[in-house]
Amino acid sequence: MLHLVSMTTKSPPALFLSHGAPPLVDSELWVSQLRALSDDLTRPTAILVVSAHWEEAPLTIGSTDPTVELTYDFWGFPERYYRTTYWSPGATDLAARVEALMPDGEPVARDQTRRLDHGAYVPLTVMYPDADIPVLQISLPTLDPQRLLDLGARLAPLRAEGVLIIGSGFTTHGLQFLTDPRPDATPPTWSMEFDAWAQERFAAGDVEALIDFRHRAPGMPYAHPTIEHFAPLFVTLGASGDPEQKPDQVIDGFWMGLAKRSLVLN
């Protein structure tokens, strides 16, 4: 069973992480930023991840079998990235809690063949390299921001039980519009403009504008020609308990021209 944390112990926050591609682990800066972030967190009893790389309706709970291999959902990378492992314990109790928190009559599925994709395990290999904390991944059942806010709100009680909730995406993700693929490339204008807008909206707690980002944000649609990499943000906002709070913007900057802004919501 998941045990409630002590009333004197601070609950883990909700995070939005710009996780990037597997080669981000080769960025000394990004690795140092993620490690500093995890060092500042209350050690969680379990970790729940919703990743841009798993869209499936109805809400689907991933495997709790720790022997199920990772999902290497990327192509064209050096072989060493496909040899990465992350044998975290299966989060059986957490899976049951997630299912119990969903509304009566709303279907919940289980996929015993899928455990963690790279949106989940890449940042975790840096943050918790010992892989000794139970981890569960659930699907994005929709890309609608309001429905994802509602989903996050239903999951929010898990934080009081010591669960770290992570929405894993990318603040900008216009891969097909990048003209310079180097990690230290000068960011394109659309990426910088969207990131600056996002920074301002986060600082203002402007959830209304964030929900309507497809119409209000500069740099669109280039920053997000498809929106699955911004969608996990809304699960994080909902899970925070106060979507209009002003999050700590703990990581910023760019990698390969894409904005890796990441947030902590307490």
From TrEMBL:
Listed cofactors: Zn(2+)
Keyword list, A-Z: Metal-binding, Oxidoreductase, Zinc
Domain of life according to the entry: Bacteria
Gene3D superfamilies recorded: LigB-like
Gene Ontology MF term list: ferrous iron binding; oxidoreductase activity, acting on single donors with incorporation of molecular oxygen, incorporation of two atoms of oxygen; zinc ion binding
Domain annotation Extradiol ring-cleavage dioxygenase class III enzyme subunit B: ranges: 40-243
Entry's family note: Belongs to the DODA-type extradiol aromatic ring-opening dioxygenase family.
Protein name, UniProt field: Extradiol ring-cleavage dioxygenase class III enzyme subunit B domain-containing protein
